[in-house]
Each structure stands twice: as C-alpha cells, then as structure tokens.
Amino acid sequence: MAKERIQYIDAMRGLTMILVVYSHVCIFCFKEYFMAYNDILFLLRLPCFFMISGWLFNKIGRIWDSSTVRQVVSNKFMVQIIPTVIFLALHERSNFFHQLGAFKGGYWFTFGLFVFFVLYILSSLAFRQCKYKDGWMLLATLVISMAAYWYDMNYSMVSSQLGWEREILGFLGFVTWRYYLFFFLGTLIKKYFDQFQCLTNRHMIQIAVVGVFCLMAAFPVTNDWLWAYTRFAISGICGMVMVFTFFRKFSSWFTKEKPLGRGLQYIGTRTLDIYLLHFFFLPESILYYNRQILAYHNTLMEVGVVLIEALLVVGACLVTSYILRFCPFLARYLFGVKDK
Which range has the worst mean pLDDT, 106-110, 295-299, 319-323? Predict the structure, then answer.
C-alpha cells in the first residue's frame, strides 16, 4: 500500500520547481541575473528544494545496514543519475564530455542530490556509535558546506595549485556541496518535527525569521568568504523555514480540492521530469523581444513576463512528460519511474 503523500509538501515542491524555471528564464532567456527579484528568490529557492529533499529522504527508524545501503544507493542511482546522464547527452550531444564539471551543463542538481544521499549515509555510519550523533553530523555538515563555499570563492587561487584533484572535485561538483547544509537540516526537521512545529507556530519567531531574511537579503555580497557564507547560510535557513511554515500553516489552500493546490501538487510530483526537460523549452529565440521589455525598467512587468514564460515552459514539460510516460521503458529510464 502506497504511503499517503503530504499535500502541502508536494505543493511546496511545485512552487520551488516553478522558481527554478523562473530563474532559468531570467538567466538564459533574458541573459539577466539581477532582474524580476531573481537575486532575492535565489536566496531561498535551492535551500527550499534541498530541505524538502532531505525531509523526504529521512525515513524515521531506518537502520543503515549493508543491505539497506545497497538498496537505497542503487535506487537513487537509477532515479538521479541514469536519467540525468541521458538528458545531458541529448541536450549537449557533441559537447557532452566537456560538461562533466561542477555544473554539468545545468544538470548539476540531480548529480549533487545523489552525492548528498551518499554523504548523509556515510555520515550516519561514521557517527552511529556517538552519543550526540545529530550534533556530530551537523558539525560535519557545516565543515563540508563551509569548505565547499570557501573553495568556490577561492577557486582561481586554489585550482592553479591542484592537478588531477581539481578534475575530481569538479566532477563531484564540490562547489555545490555548500547546499548539503539545507539537505541535512531537512532531515533534522523531519526527525524533530513536533519541536520544529511548536517553535515556528510562535508569532514572534515567524516575525523574526522574516525580518532576518529581509535583513540578509538587503546586505550586499562581499569578497569576504566568511561573511558571504554567513549571509548564504542564514538567508537560506530563514528562507526555507519561512516558506515551509507558510505552506504548513495555510495547508488548506493547497489541497487537491483547490485549483491552486491541485496544480502545484501535480507540478510537485513531476519535479524531476520538469527539471530534466525544461532546458529544451527555454525560449531563447525571443531574446530580442525580452530586451524590449527590459527597456521599460518596470520590475512588476518583468516579474509578470518572466512568470508567464516560466509557466509556459513548465506546461510544455508536463505535456511532454505525460506523453513519454505512456511508454514504460521511457518512463523508467528517462524519469526513474519504478516498475509496477
């Protein structure tokens, strides 16, 4: 019997997937990063996505014996890696092997998520005998996340001193490991959900979280890596708590009985499909018209146009996914759908 899905979690996944496409429309179609509040949304978009991934990955009571590790890693490899390699090869074609660095031609998220699964399993095994296991795992997570951020900011200096290690770190997407912090926090929120819910139900905590996020967003990015990481981490944590709490408290808005909830939930159950397909539908051919829109210098107009384009791309992905899923073979190897 399939486990009942949490509707507001699926709806939140749907929103974050729309925000990912929204960002890519700004970057690839408008060739602009600082537009339509994309730089602000950037602070919470991926933290939310990785937090949800950590939440869903953490199965309370799971024991990491050798059989479980093999089964989980094998299943995640089939869902995260095989489909991504296929789509990367289709999208890049002759340029495939040149796209196996940190960002994998844009397909880094699923590679990174698979690595996070492995990091979590290894961390769980390493600290399983420790009295304060969660505390040690959190400390290890912070070390990994901070090291990745430092490496990214100092890449030009460090990379010249590395040989083959640079290529290995690139293939593993080490610079993206900064987001492991939010994945791990997602597993903790799942584990201590009653305490988390009690804490975030307090109005003063809610106001403080929103206020700190706005404050961090207002601060400029600097070349000081420690401050930059602090801004990255605090804004990400506040952003994911803010969005998660909103969807949880107003979960009645996001049920299947409501059109908004039904739409977001459907998108949320097809996030992998949309992520893998959306690069093929980004409308770069209308760049000229997008440039005309930018000439108005109207942020609200930019938000509206980018959102419409993002929703059109999401819609095209959903239609394509629906058609491809009719073939069990394609559903299995393109989207990781398990055999019934």
Answer: 295-299
Nearest to 36 by CA among 312, 293, 317, 313: 293
Find where tokens 């509206």 sit.
304
Report the Cα–Cα distance between both ends of the chain, in Å, rounded.
Answer: 12
Map tokens 């992520």 to a residue: 275
CA-wise closest residue to 49 among 272, 217, 317: 272
| Angle made by CA atoms 212, 306, 262, in degrees to the nearest 5 | 80
What does each C-alpha distance from 81 to 112, 145, 227, 251, 333 come to in angstroms?
A: 10, 22, 34, 32, 10
Q: How many angstroms separate the CA atoms of 295 and 190, rounded?
A: 46
d(CA 2, CA 14): 21
Q: Give the rounded distance of the alpha carbon of 59 from its chain centre.
A: 19
Query: What does the pLDDT average to over 187-204?
Result: 94
Alpha-carbon distance of 268 to 24, in angstroms, equals 18
| Chain segment 27-85, per-residue pLDDT in tens | 888 888 888 899 899 999 999 999 999 999 988 778 898 999 999 999 999 999 999 99
Identify the sign of the CA torsion 298, 301, 303, 305: negative
Q: pTM of whole model > 0.90?
A: yes
Residue 141 has pLDDT above 90, yes or no: yes
Tally of residues, the chain: 340
- C-alpha–C-alpha distance, residues 293 and 305, integer Å: 8
Kindly report the backbone phi and psi dihedral angles of residue 3, in degrees, each rounded to the nearest multiple of 5, phi listed first: -75, 135
CB 180 within 8 A of CB 116: yes
Q: Which residue is listed with tokens 């990994």?
A: 144
Q: What is the Cα–Cα distance from 313 to 186, expressed in whole angstroms? A: 28
Distance between CA 18 and CA 308 in Å, rounded?
11
Torsion of the alpha carbons at 246, 252, 258 and 259, rounded to the nearest 10? 10
Mean pLDDT, rounded, for 216-242:
92
pLDDT digits (tens, 9 = 90+) for 264-283: 999 999 999 999 999 999 87
